[in-house]
């Protein structure tokens, strides 16, 4: 339990009440993405995908000035490519993506814990999970999104993306890495340095 009232976790009832207020004051029915694509997602759908951290400071629609119909977005812990790879393959099947932007940020919460912290917590909470000679925990360790708090981690993520065996090579070659400085709000292109290097 936090001592900061602004950080208190709302109850499900509070969330449902907030939804009612949203529905009454803000919500406007919008066409589905399929309808916006004239029922042809591969031709008219968004061909840009942004993989970004789930933190509110890293909302790609805000920090990159994107509109919902301009891109698809996957948000996960730390904006890691490898934990989003299966979803990327599915979206590529639907939209025939042309470009992927991987957006990492400074001071990400995933940089404040280590893989060992997570593994120790899992062992404590679920000792039965490690019962098969550590095989399950080894599989978990590979998937963990924790990283260093610097652009080098983004370069490592992009290098790992190139090794993904089930996503089209031309799509993997289109991956661009951006690093958001949350203090200034500015992004820096980490890889490749220019579009000419794609």
TrEMBL record:
| Xref: SUPFAM superfamilies | beta-carbonic anhydrase, cab
PANTHER family, per database record? CARBON DISULFIDE HYDROLASE, CARBONIC ANHYDRASE
Q: Does the keyword tRNA processing apply?
A: no
Q: Which InterPro entries match?
A: Carbonic_anhydrase, Carbonic_anhydrase_sf
> What are its cofactors?
Zn(2+)
* Species this chain originates from: Exophiala sideris
Stated family: Belongs to the beta-class carbonic anhydrase family.
Q: Which UniProt keywords apply?
A: Metal-binding, Zinc
Judging by the UniProt lineage, the source's domain of life is Eukaryota
This protein's record includes keyword Zinc: yes
Question: In its UniProt entry, what is this protein called?
Answer: Carbonic anhydrase
């Amino acid at each position: 339990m936090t001592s900061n009232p602004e950080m208190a976790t709302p109850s499900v009832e509070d969330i449902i009440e907030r939804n009612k207020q949203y529905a009454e004051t803000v919500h406007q029915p919008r066409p589905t993405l399929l309808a916006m694509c004239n029922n042809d997602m591969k031709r008219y759908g968004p061909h840009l995908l942004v993989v970004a951290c789930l933190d509110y400071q890293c909302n790609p629609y805000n920090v990159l000035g994107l509109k919902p119909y301009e891109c698809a977005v996957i948000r996960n812990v730390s904006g890691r490519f490898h934990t989003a790879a299966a979803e990327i393959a599915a979206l590529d099947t639907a939209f025939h993506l042309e470009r992927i932007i991987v957006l990492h940020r400074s001071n990400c919460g995933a940089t404040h814990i280590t893989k060992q912290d997570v593994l120790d917590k899992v062992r404590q909470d679920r000792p039965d999970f490690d019962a098969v000679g550590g095989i399950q925990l080894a599989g978990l360790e590979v998937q963990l999104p924790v990283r260093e708090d610097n652009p080098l981690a983004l370069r490592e993520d992009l290098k790992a993306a190139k090794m993904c065996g089930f996503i089209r090579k031309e799509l993997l070659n289109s991956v661009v890495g951006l690093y958001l400085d949350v203090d200034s709000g500015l992004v820096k292109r980490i890889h490749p340095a220019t579009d000419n290097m794609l």
